[in-house]
Amino acid sequence: MLWNLVHRWKSQRYPLVHLLMLAVLALYTLLGAICFCAFEAGPERAKLARWAEENRQWKQMARSRLLSDVQSVIIA
């Protein structure tokens, strides 16, 4: 009973505290996401560049193998 009175008094005195805390949480989360992106951008770009190069080499190898297989079938 006493808790209800205290809670009602606080909510009447500070009606926007919950919205303020939600805004602080959202800003904190956004700041954390920005920091994470800033720290991880370099390694991620390097990883993607390495993957693209490996993918390009794999495609080139597959094309040359396919061409040699087709040539062997046509010649034989």
Explain what this protein looks like in three dimensions:
- This protein has 76 residues and is mainly α.
- It has one domain.
- The longest helix is centred in the middle third of the chain and has 59 residues.
- It is rod-shaped, with a radius of gyration of 31 Å.
Q: Estimate the strand proportion.
A: under 5%
Largest sheet: none
Number of strands: 0
Q: Residue share in helices?
A: over 70%
Tally of separate helices:
2
Q: Let me know the average pLDDT.
A: 85
Total discrete domains: 1
Shape: rod-shaped
The helix-strand sequence is: HH
Rounded radius of gyration (Å) = 31 Å
Question: Which consecutive residue ranges, at least 5 long each, have pLDDT under 50?
Answer: none
Task: Tell me the span between the first and last alpha carbons.
Answer: 95 Å
Strand pairing plus helix content: what structural class? mainly alpha
Brief characterization of the structure:
The protein has 76 residues and is an all-alpha fold. Helices cover 93% and strands 0% of the residues.
Write the layout of secondary structure elements.
Blueprint lengths: L1 H12 L3 H59 L1
